[in-house]
Amino acid sequence: MNTSMIKTAAEIDLMRESARLLSQVFSMLDDFIEVGITTLEIDQKVEHFIVHELEARPASKGQYDYQFCLNSSVNEVVCHGVPSTYRLKGADSINIDITLEKNGFISDSSKMYLMPNASVAAKKLAKTTYESMCKGIQKVKPGAHLGDIGFAIQEHAQGAGYSVVKEYCGHGIGREMHEEPQVLHYGHMDTGMELVAGMTFTIEPMINQGQAKVKTKKDGWTVVTRDKKLSAQWEHTILVTETGYEVLTLRDEEEAI
Questions:
Q1: Of 109, 120, 234, 252, which is the most buried if we count CB atoms within 10 A?
Q2: Rounded CA gap, 9 and 87, in Å?
Q3: 3-state DSSP assignment of residue 66
Q4: Is the model's pLDDT at 2 over the cut of 80?
Q5: Nearest-angstrom CA–CA distance, 206 and 166
Q6: 76: Cα within 13 Å, side-chain hemisphere
Q7: What whole-number distance in Å separates Cα of residue 22 and Cα of residue 18?
Q8: DSSP state of 81
Q9: Which residues, 6+ apart, have CB-to-CB distance to 196 below 8 Å?
Q10: Are strands 236-240 and 77-79 parallel, antiparallel or unpaired?
Q11: Under a CB-based contact definition with an 8 Å cutoff, are residues 174 and 6 in contact?
Q12: CA 116 to CA 105: how far, in whole Å?
């Protein structure tokens, strides 16, 4: 195992601070996102809040030549939706995915926002996707395997009649946005890397209403479902503790996972 995957106590404290600030960004957005707002306005609001209110850095901006501080993935967009002049409609569902760096350490989280007239199907998909993420998180402890996480997510999502996107996965995180290991959202129990206390990584399942197949649009970023059916995603940054796990990016409105 690459020893850089294991964070020291001091590094973990810095990760906690970065994650705490990121959770504040979502609390701010809870009162900001509404029908009629553009995804570009959301991006601009978040950048201003991170830089000027939190005195931190939007870690996604400039990464891989990306020019925005978040991904805004609406309806059939699976991930990496690019902020634009698109105005949210009453029945839309949108995933907002944000990274934040403070004192050299990065946290990463995403949340689904459902507009007032979102369909029952959209609400059920978002709920099941959140549950699937939680099932994966609950498998985290020293001695468990990455495959245990993927298996739990896949079992719950497919049991509800949905499909799991396999092209994109969770990842180690710390000084860099994307570190080892890769955290797949499908798999088999007792397979993959063994988890060790001090590891930090994201769990961020993308679950589709229809088929799992996806494609990337001509902008080179936006990933959509091939069948144009809905997709949902949730994400948290997780620490492996001596006895289990800590959800570093847990938000105020969430109960302990």
A1: 109
A2: 44
A3: coil
A4: no
A5: 8
A6: 13
A7: 6
A8: P
A9: 1, 5, 6, 142, 240
A10: unpaired
A11: no
A12: 36
Distance CA 239, CA 6 (A): 10
Tokens describing residue 75: 């309806």
pLDDT single digits (tens) 86-144: 999 999 999 999 999 999 999 999 999 999 999 999 999 999 999 999 999 999 999 99
CA angle 115, 165, 185 (to 5 degrees): 105
Domains by residue range for the chain, with CATH: 3-247 (3.90.230.10)
Q: Residue 1: pLDDT above 80?
A: no
104: left (phi over 0), alpha (psi -120 to 50) or beta: left
Nearest to 29 by CA among 19, 16, 39, 14: 39
User: What residues contact 189, with CB distance under 8 A and at least 6 apart?
Assistant: 145, 147, 148, 151
Q: How far apart, in whole angstroms, are the C-alpha atoms of residue 113 and residue 154? A: 23
Torsion sign over Cα 178, 63, 134, 251: positive
Instruction: Give the residue carrying structure tokens 């080179």.
Output: 220
Burial of residue 40 (CB within 10 Å: 0-12, 13-18, 19+) is middle
- First-last CA distance in the chain: 28
Tokens of 42: 């959301």
Going by C-alpha positions, the residue among 70, 78, 63 that lies closest to residue 169 is 78
